[in-house]
Amino acid sequence: MTTQVGRLNTLKVIKEKEFGMYLDADQLGEILLPKRYIPKGLKVGEEVEVLVYLDSDDELIATTETPKVQVGEFAALTCVAVNQVGAFFDWGLPKDLLVPFSQQKNRVEEGETHLLFVYLDQLTNRIVATTKVDALLNREEAPYRAGDQVSIIIGDKTNIGFKCIIDNRFWGVLFFQDAFRQLRKGEKTMAFIKRVREDGKIDLSLQEVGYKKVRNILDDIMDYLESQGGEMALTDKASPEAIYAVFKVSKATYKKALGALYKDQKILLSKEKVTKK
């Protein structure tokens, strides 16, 4: 099995020294896991999950620390320094992640947060990143249908909603009306495909589309009522934040669900409370 630089690998410990353990990194040979990163109780012959990358001396080294992003992935990271080489971003490891000037869509300043893509420079074998992400997305026809669940990364806020990266492959838009809670740039979350337009653009929703999203929380509401002794103050007048904190849905969906339960004569509704019948 090939060991990948810049990604998590499961490698076997082949020998132990005072300063650390050496791991069998396949085609890369033996790589040191420094003593400070060795999990308690790890022994020769056992396997350990590590990230392989170049240290400050450009030597391959292993760490059990988990980075915020791996090679081949997108993420929103914060710039911590800028010098004559480029901008450096905090990606959770001692050696910061470089975005060379040539790979900056717009000049990066210290303290800014940018969406970027991490890759392995084939000439230097160094892990670097680029903020020129547009050309790396929408390279194929979107394979999605309405209702499909996907993984997204929240991008820039626009006048209509949020740009989002879908499954590390496509751009999508999450309109404000479909984003019923506060979101932050770089946040990773699950979403649902609302529609794929004829021009290939993708609309997203944080909750399931259609009546299915209502049907899926009916049991949750009844279970919660049961746990609260048969009544609760979370009526259809409650704030969107209070509703999301309990049921993880929008206020509109919650109101439809209460209406369905009332129609089925499973609950009673008043201005003050919801009561189980």
Automatic annotation (TrEMBL):
InterPro entries: CvfB_fam, CvfB_S1_st, CvfB_WH, NA-bd_OB-fold, S1_domain, WH-like_DNA-bd_sf
Coiled coil: none
Domain S1 motif: 4-65, 70-132, 145-207
An MF annotation (GO) of this entry: nucleic acid binding
SMART domains noted in UniProt: S1 (SM00316)
Family indicated by similarity: Belongs to the CvfB family.
Name this protein carries in UniProt: S1 motif domain-containing protein
Lineage, uppermost ranks: Bacteria, Pseudomonadati, Pseudomonadota, Gammaproteobacteria, Oceanospirillales
